[in-house]
Amino acid sequence: MISLILKNFLLSDRAGVFKPIANRVFFIGVFFHEFAHYGMCLAVGRIPKNISIEWWGGKYNNERNPRGSVEHKEVPSFLQSIVISFAPLYFSTWLIFGLWFGVIFTPFYDPIIKTIAVFVLLSLLLTAAPSSGDIGVISLSFRKDPKHSWYQIFLISFSILALWFFLVITQITFFLEVFYYLAIAGIYLVLRFSFIGLRKLVIRIDSYNYKKPQKVRFRRFTGRRYKPTKPWKKSE
After folding, report:
1. Does this model's pTM top 0.85?
2. Which backbone phi and psi does 141 adopt, to 5 degrees?
3. Do 128 and 156 share a structural domain?
4. What is the DSSP letter of 104?
5. Which three-class secondary structure state does DSSP give residue 174?
6. Secondary structure of residue 71 in the 3-state scheme
7. What are the φ/ψ torsions at residue 49 (nearest 5 degrees)?
8. For the segment 167-225, what is each residue's pLDDT rounded down to a tens digit?
9. Same-domain status, 17 and 61
10. Is residue 234 part of a domain?
């Protein structure tokens, strides 16, 4: 919400003389925003087609309106689209807290470094929220394959519920929030590959012809035994 409020105010005419400064600060954040998308695409196994970052992106291409995009070779799945679209928000949050408590409010850095950290922090705040294009990719992915999208929603919901029951029963608490996401992802992958294996097993059983079973052939474990010729057969 803070990201959306700052973006709508500082990049509009209401900002007055601060708008040119906000545009330049916003342009720094666009780099991180798009590269967060790009890195998450690689992490989920979707190699992007290209990445573009523009400084002039107005209605007639003569306005200072920084923007960027990551083009996919093919439309990702619904769950992949959610992870990719919200990647800048997640990573920006960690960096904002890191700059706030690790650089700005620590006595170990010079004022120049702290000033640069403030501008970087502001750029991350301006570009942390998903854009309208990011939300559009999520909608497009869902409409491309609704059945598979609902299947992914079911799996991720069941993974969250299973982790919640496990933590309540065992009274385990993770000291970092990221471990909760990793645990949910692990449970999701286990369920996904378990269902895939179960589906292949059912298809294998269903394709077996029980009316005409195959003949079982026993293979000999030893070679052919030597049978000597009988004496009376030679005399004949």
Report:
1. no
2. -65, -40
3. no
4. I
5. coil
6. strand
7. -75, -50
8. 999 988 888 888 898 999 999 999 999 988 988 888 888 776 666 655 555 455 455 55
9. yes
10. no
